[in-house]
Input
Amino acid sequence: MRTFKAGWGLLQLALASVLFLVIMELTAATIPMVGIALPQSLVAEPFVMLINLEKKIWDFLETMSAVPLLVSSFSWLLFLPNLLSGDWRIRNREPFKSTKPLGRGLTYAGALLLASLGLAVFFAHFPYISSNELKGVDTDFYYAKLSQINDFAELSALIVTEARAPYLFILWGVRALSGLSDLQVVQIGPSVPAVLLALSTFLLVREISSDIRAAAIASYLSVTSATTTVGMFAGIYANWLAMSSVSIFLYFLIRILREGRKRQIVLGALAGYATLVIHAWTWGIAVGSLAVLVMLAFVRWRMKGSDSKGDLARLGLLLLSITVPVLVILVFFASFGKTGAIEGVLSGLTEVVPYLSPINIRFFWSNLSFTLDRFVGGFLRQPVLYVLAFIGFYTIRHRSEGSVPVLVSWFAVTSIVTILMDSWFQWRLIYTMPFPILASLGLCFLVKRIDMMKFGCHWKSQALLVGLQLFVYLSLFNYAIRSLSLLPPSS
Output
């Protein structure tokens, strides 16, 4: 009886707290939108107080983002013993699956995916509701380049020489099909990488979890996270676009480990080359991640013998297929002409590699704090996402099947290199870490665990679960809106 009363009291407190947080986040999400059309004087004082309180709470919590970021990005270290001894090809993914509190699968996932796609378009338009001035550090580069393209011949020449040509090609296609001005096309252009990332993340997490609701959650988180806000702040649209091809690349890596078919190797290689063409630096991280995966497969082969030889052969073949041709061209590139993708690889070798230094380990914490506070508007401070990502890592801590070594290898490369770099390159590496994927698994895990607790009041338990999800969705929406309201004018 005492246990029941304790559980009942805990439920009451949790429900009241979550209800207050949801009301606060809902107020912060809706009132500023209404304020676009209405004078600020018409907004009631209690609403203004709630909005100010919400901002102060997040200003405080965001100052502590470094800790959950550090913990979640290095959680992969806990997986190594299990990865080296476990089976990478098992297909039982039941522990990933969520339960009824996430709603009816298809309805819930469909609504959330549609919301994600709608927000992807809305966020691209939001900075220009009250101003036509281009926003984002590098946005003027794309506007200037697009203005110079008058016909397909000029576009073709640009594709060969410009490292960021694929995104320019998309902008040119939008202009040709829509008839919009160069300025309008550049302004709505970010909706393309946002939509593509939402869809590719959905596909990847659907493969990881076998749960379309977890996939829809990941899609939403990818749109409302730093991938969007930092992408628009810095104007790194090619990097942003490449994250979609990376998601497809990781998808095929998982399929290779789970199924071992030759077709998956070919498709994985195509996704790798697509990443190279779109953004060579991101391709370099993908190659590094695959190299780590090959090394893990080699160690497993030495430990387990012939059982894991096939994984090593398939991954090694994929690594050779996406690196050897590029290395050959790098050695003899003068004979082929200086192409945009090869120029991007060379710039990565000449601009990034020299800054790798063990000396930076001594200053890692100060560098990381400076990165989060000063670079890209401070938009990398996302404590909710990092905490959920750590919980997501926790949910897969005992697993070894296909998706886990793929995720571990990506985080291993980016987190280790982050330690060896200064702040200028740190934020580019953090930007590529797939926190939304793990955060979606973390949220599903929380919902499932809370649902398993028996508080004795079904409707209040369900209200708590719904409130938790609304809080996460609304808080990340408000984070995105706050960030996009602070975009700098294009230089």
Remarks:
- Residues 2-484 form one domain.
